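Hi R.,

Here's the chain you asked about this morning:
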Amino acid sequence: MNFKTTLIIVILLIGIGGAYFLFFQESAEDASTDEKPMIHQVYGIPRDTVQQVEISFADAAYQHMKLEKDNTGNWRLTQPIQVDADNEKVNQVLDDILNKRIKQTLEVPELTQYGLNTPSITFSLWTNQTAPAATFLIGKKAINFSVYAKEKSETHLFLIESSALDDLTKSTTDLRDRSMIRFNTETVSGIQLQQDNTETTIHCEKRDNTWHLVHPIETKADVAKIETLLSELRALKVSTFEADGADANNPARLEKYGLDTPRIQAQITDTDNTYAIDIGAAAETGTQGQVYAKVSAHQDAIYTVPENIYNLLNKSVFDLREKRVMDFERTDTIRLEIKQDNETIVCTKNYNGTWELQTPTAKIKADANAVDDLLFGVDSLEAAAFVDTPIKNLALYGLTPPSIEVRFTQRSEEKPAVLLIGNRTQDGTVYVKAEQATQVVRVKPALIDNIARGAAWLRDKQVLDFHIDDAIRLTFTSHGEEPITCQRLGTNWRITAPVQEDANNVEVNAIIYELDDLMAEAFVGTEPTTAGFDKPNVQLIVELRNQKVYTLQIGKTDASGRFYARLQHEPDLILLLNAELVPKLKTTLALLRTSEQGPL
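And the predicted structure, written out as tokens:
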């Protein structure tokens, strides 16, 4: 190959390389997109300053849209319909377009070949002026994932990311708020509910920052239930938009959706606005779990929404009225009294926070958990049903005199709060009444049954009260076997009957420790006929240095497998022991003898 040919080839290669770099490679300036300015920077339009937006499309399948920000800072669609917009979605559209970087600016003689003489999208933004702050025209796609765009008043065009087409191609359904109704739960002042199977309208009003039922009865409302209703209703989202405006009031459409005779009608009053909600039929096949709902607020609309709205609004007077029986401060209670069958037990709170039970026969430590359960149980006690007022004769319900009277003395209060407990009904519920209340209610029996147990429920569940070093003699008797007695000698134990020899200290001490920690699961109160104390399964006698003697008898098991037990000096107080504890209290002579022991 001669020099001339080589030179021609070199020149051709340089030309091809230059052309490739010129037409297919971005310049270093183009490649560094992070250095390119954003649209909001070039045109001085931060997203938060935008007050109005208009989007129009060349494609007739998309409607011209206009959005305006109201005086509360929320976005509303004003064209083609007037409805609340989704603030988050509108702001996202603004962020997407205003944060696009201008890749390149071009001066061109005419716009046709760039699709800007008839732009696919026209996007106008207002700030505080009467005229748009900027109107952007979006044209054809270009190479390198770009699209041609220009500001309407300018002669040059520029390139931005082609994702702008997707960012701006939105329908009214995309941008409208999917909240069925939008209100402030804190400022709602009224609720009305009516079911189609009753003519009674339930009306609740908020007065002095608390809720009341005002129709069909006047009473306190269940604040938690109403707040839950409002919170869940506010959070409910539309599944599909079926009709708006005049079309939502078409008689044929209302009949089709079961909205000509709604199953439930509700009204929510929020400040000066009233929202009417009608719940119709279940939605058609393909939208299972949905019901039709019609809402009248700024504009009538029909939606499909999750069917749980029916249960949310299908409330009775009982559902919404206050069901709490007593109003007292359980944490401030320092004394409680239970009067039953001419006997009163008193439980007082000591300065260190512990509780002491004063029975007619003795003072004993109270079970802190049981006292807490009583206080919490009464504080949260709710009516299962209400007795129709007015109440003419409390004796009909066993409330004059009451079967049980429970009094709660609270710190800094002169008069105690009093709960009166009356007769049991055929369905198992019990009549009760707060002394100062006018209403008699029926409650479930679980708490009342525990209160009726009195000291058996409230007393400390520790069975024996002694220190392990104070035990000096221990006698074991298992059913059908000879008693075994162990005597403490210094720090060691010795078997004294039926044999006399050193005992296995580990085995004896293990039982002593179990007795010291022994806790009853519950006190029964009276001896069941099946307790088996005539022939105890196990009997243990513990003698102490102070000459006090505990005799623990363990009988048969109850239906749940727990063992009946009692102390001989309190034969009428029956307790239940965990089934796993009893085997630890049993022993044999062979276990109590030491392995080193020789014959006598």
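The first helix runs from residue 3 to 24.

Let me know if you need anything else.
M.
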